[in-house]
Fold this sequence. Notes:
By secondary structure, the chain is an alpha/beta fold. It has one domain (13-49, 92-286): phage-related protein like fold (Alpha-Beta Complex), CATH 3.90.1690. Helix content is 24%, strand content 31%. The chain has 5 helices and 12 strands. It has helices spanning 13-31, 114-136, 150-163, 179-186, 199-203, and strands at residues 42-44, 51-55, 92-96, 98-107, 141-143, 170-175, 205-209, 212-217, 228-237, 241-256, 261-274, 280-286. It has a 6-stranded mixed beta sheet. A 4-stranded mixed beta sheet has the order 1-10-11-4, with helices on one face. Helix 1 runs parallel beside helix 2 (114-136). The chain is globular and about 80 Å long.
Amino acid sequence: MAYSAQFGSGINLEALMVPTQAATVFAAQESSLYLPGSIIPIQQVAQGSATAQVAVMGTSTVQTVSGDGATPQTEDMDPGVDFTAYLPSNTKTTIALDLIASRTVIRDLGGADFNDFGRILGNAIGSEVDRRSTGALAGLTIEAPGGVSLLDDLYDAISTVRAAGETGPLNCVVNAAKYGEFMKVIGSSAFAAADLQNSAMRSGYLGTIAGVPCFTTAYMIGANLPGMNSADFAVFSADAVRIAMQGGVNVEFERQSAAVGTSITASAAYGVATIDATRGVISGVVTP
């Protein structure tokens, strides 16, 4: 049977699967801030497991094993005694996977472009990942806004994270409602986003402030942040929050005779959690 991208007549499964699956996976990756894994790292979960065990990154202490013998702090240790082992924290956070899914039906003679169905399903999965991932940021250290300016609050938040010992790269996610306030302070002419990984990151890029890349999201609102009335932004390192996934975005097809068409389901096994609140700050107001 011939395949037409414009009219769903004479559908055969192969012709339906290839463009729809490709469009779904592409749309999910392009529409999500977090699925590329550069803002929040993604840990893969092996088949057969429904949880991920993520170690909390602690710090180890360095001891002087052999010194000059001049002071008690640097004198040689007894060679017959092992020095104390200070390991990174063995505290673990368990992230449970949820199945998130979206489904549609392409009817025979429906006059639909298969690529559009894939884009709709992919955008739905990407949006759900972004909603849940942004919601997990409520588990970071909460700081109330200072009342002077958002930029001052951001500088204070970065200072808090750095003072806690975090030396790695940071990322910042900003409430989309605060976009204008930020841009009026920092301007836009000096910032380019050509090197970012996907469409969502490029279009949502505010700029780099104090060495921290900043991105906007529509999901940093009180209704999506447990225990908070509102939030302006969150700044955090890669070891503050973690996403767990089993594989990637899956697409399945099934003939639905009762619907006189073909059912398409996009799904992902996904979970997210804050694993170390000291490595990030969210600026907002808690629920009384």
